[in-house]
Every structure is written in structure tokens, then in C-alpha cells.
Amino acid sequence: MTLDPPHIERRRRAHDRTQREAGKAARDVRKQLWCNIPTGNPTTSIHGSVTAALTADSLVKQFDTVTAVNGVSLTVRAGEIVGLLGPNGAGKTTALRMLAGILTPTTGRVSINGMDLHANPLAAKPHIGFLSGDTQLYQRLSTREVLRYFGRLYGLAAGRLTDRIEQLVSELEMEPFADRPCRTLSTGQKQRANIARAFLHQPDVLMLDEPTAALDVISGQFIIETILRERAAGRAVLFSTHIMSEAEYLCDRIYLLHEGRITDEGPLAEILARSGCVSLKDAFLRHARAQKELAGSRPK
Fold it and tell me: Which of 18, 46, 114, 240 makes a 20 to 30 Å CA pair with 59?
């Protein structure tokens, strides 16, 4: 029998402990946040008249003759992780860019903590942390310098900003490279720096577009653990992925997106029960086939 080296075994034990602690903390947060939510109204929070942290209502985005997103509605509450799943070209990135206020919907509405994002962008956007799939860092700046630059844009006080930067450098284990120019960083290191930038101002809503794409197993798992910590802290997290195993592991609820439309949504167990499948991958493929057959049966 081959034994793992001691340092790998220590990392594995630490990872298992982090998962257990994050899971317990997340359950406690959700219990506190949701215990007074009335049934039958998924957009009402513990404050009664205040809506969910993130709400999208009938979003449509057209580019000339192409409808990239078609009638997408969703909600994300504080203390939960919601997955937006779909293959490449399903409309995930376009939907997230509308939810973050980067794209204006053709029709539909986005609310952040009850504020209309596109009617009141300056009030709503400080509550958003957005990580896009193609975010670039300033190549000549170090990670600390990038964070200080964005912290000043967010208006963080100097003392608070310094403390927050050092907290993120420690939590994301960036000490070995925090003062190196970003052009010298590996893909995984750049992604940690980008996540730090999105989390810097401690926003209520986090939107992450395929945060583990192109990362190795260790870096990807590190990002997943970071997302779990943010849920445990009470953040509302929406992330897109086409990696079904990530969604099964992370998500409290899931939206399946195919050709710009939501084909199913709910907790994993409910999606599997409705589809008659044993895995999310099989359920998604069944939905995709059904949508393709439906499209083929429509009159031309």
C-alpha cells in the first residue's frame, strides 16, 4: 500500500476540517436568515418588505437578430450559493453581465437589496462583487497595489483598506506573490488576486463567472473553499459553471440554462426527482434533449 507524504495528508485533513466547519456555519447562517421567511414568496427576506439580495425579473438580451437571454428570472438570498448551469453558449455570461450592471437588458429588471440596478446604479453597484471570466489585472502592478487601487475606487478608508488587504492576502494564501508584478503570476495566482479584488469591499452579492475555469485541481479546490467561507459569512453567491460536479457540491439551489432560457430550477434533489435521473449531468442532458426536440417541433 502506498502512503501519502505527510504534507499531503496534512493538507487533506485541513481541507476536510474546512469543509465541515464551512458546512456547519452555512447551515447556521441559513437557519438564522430563513427561519422567518413566509412560505410561498421566494423573494421575501427576513425583513418582510425587503426583497432577496439579488432578484432578476424576466431578463431579455438581444444582439441584433440573436436573443442571447430569453426571459430569465431568478433570486439569490443571503447565505446561499446558487448555481447558473449551462453549456458554452447557453447565455450564462450575458446573464451575469446584466445582473452585474455591465450590460443593460433589452427588457426586464434587476434588483440588488431591493434597489433597481439600472435605475439606481451608483447606489446598487457598491453591493456587488463581480468576477468575470476574462478579468485582467494591471500587469505592472503587484497584487497589493491592485487591491489598494480598487479599494480607493470603492472609497474604503485608508486604515480599513490596509487591514482588509492583509486579511485577504492571508486568507487566500497570497503572501509568496502579493508583491510581485501581476505579469509574473501563474493562472491560479491571478485568479486568487482577482477573487480578492471582487471580495475586497465585502459586498452583499457575489457574482462569479466560471471561477475555477482553467485551474488545476488544487487551485480549483482552494477557490471552492473560499466560496464556502463567503456563504458562511452570509453573502449571497451566484456563480456560473459548466462543471456539474462543482454545482452538486456547492449549490443550495440550481438554475439550468439552455439557449438563453431557464429549463428547470430548485434544490438538487428536486431537479433529480423531476428528471428521474441520479446525477445532475444526466438531468441536464435530459433537459437539453427535451428543449432540442421542442425546438424541432415548432413551426418554421
Answer: 46
